[in-house]
Amino acid sequence: PVRVLQSHSPACCQLGAVHDGHTPRTNGMISQQPLTLAYITYRKQPHFEWFSDAIHIQCDGDYSQLNLIVLDFHAASPERRSAIARVCRFPGFLHVPPKPTPWQGPHRLTKQDCFAASNARNTALCYCTTDWIACVDDLSLPMPDWLNHARNATTKKAVTCGAYKKVCAMKVSNGRMESCVETANGLDSRWNVGRDDGPVHATGGMFFGCSFVAPVKAFLDTNGFDEDCDGMGFEDQMAGLMLEHAGWQLLYERRMLTL
Q1: What is the rounded CA–CA span in Å between residue 221 and residue 200?
Q2: Which residues pair with 95 in a beta bridge?
Q3: Cβ pair 216, 132 in contact under 8 A
Q4: What's the 3-state SS for the chain?
Q5: Which residues pair with 258 in a beta bridge?
Q6: What gap in Å lies between CA 194 and CA 224, rounded to an integer?
Q7: From the CA atom positions of the chain, what is the Rg in Å?
Q8: How many C-beta atoms lie closer than 10 Å to residue 180's C-beta?
Q9: Distance of CA 115 to CAs 80, 120, 183, 229, 242, Å?
């Protein structure tokens, strides 16, 4: 079946992606599934090498069950494409700009480029060719067990939210944190709800877009991220509420941590 991600903005076309959403299950559990990692960036200096090097270590150089989409506002620049290619450890990956939107880019209707995370994540969903997707924000470093817990999330029929910690003055070498400075109130506001021995139930309002793993079908059921939120934000919690109302289970896995 074909489900369509529709854009409410006049400058955007309707983009479709084919997913049947069905994976063989045994006793309610499934084995780890192929996973598309979607790295979303708007920054001129996203430090993509932090992410690429960390994933290379965590997968032991085995990318057979991993795809990568670099969803990059600056992807049209030859210099940017070369810079990303130089530091990317993935043997093959997709480097593309967001689809047209009135909020930013060459088709914008605004005086300047504005925040448009829904449009970017919906673009990643359209390009995704696996049944599962993990989205990660730029300028972040996955902690050593991030990929393991992301892959384990594909064994559950649920949307899994990762945790975050805001730090500054990060010094990263070969995908590993050497030093950083912690910030006041930088710890994930959901942290104390989580556990160290597994994920816990989460509500829609606990869905944050900085790190999550989900069946693509979940977002096709809710028509993706609400692009009416572009220009102002709160698109992630809105998405979580729509997923919850559509009957999808949400989990919070604080061991799936990014800095």
Answers
A1: 23
A2: 70
A3: yes
A4: CEEEECCCCCCCCCEEEECCCCCCCECCECCCCCEEEEEEECCCCCCHHHHHHHHHHHCCCCCCCEEEEEEECCCCCHHHHHHHHHHCCCCCCEEECCCCECCECCCCCCCCCCCCHHHHHHHHHHHCCCCEEEEEECCCCECCCHHHHHHHHCCCCCEEEEEEEEEEEEEEECCEEEEEEEEEEEECCCHHHCCCCCCEEECHHHCCCCEEEEEHHHHHHCCCCCHHHCCCCCHHHHHHHHHHHCCCCEEEEEEEEEC
A5: 142, 164
A6: 26
A7: 17
A8: 17
A9: 20, 10, 24, 9, 21
* Separation of alpha carbons 112 and 243, rounded Å: 31
pLDDT tens, residue order, the chain (259 aa): 333 444 433 333 333 333 333 333 333 457 899 999 999 999 999 999 999 999 999 999 999 999 999 999 999 999 999 999 999 999 999 999 999 998 888 888 999 988 889 999 999 999 999 999 999 999 999 999 999 999 999 999 999 999 999 999 999 999 999 999 999 999 999 999 999 999 999 999 999 999 999 999 999 999 999 999 888 888 999 999 999 999 999 999 999 999 9
Instruction: Please state, in angstroms and rounded to a whole number, the distance separating the CA atoms of residues 219 and 205.
Output: 16
**Which tokens hold the place of 198?**
């597994």
Residues in the chain: 259
Residue 213 and residue 117: Cα distance in Å, rounded?
A: 16
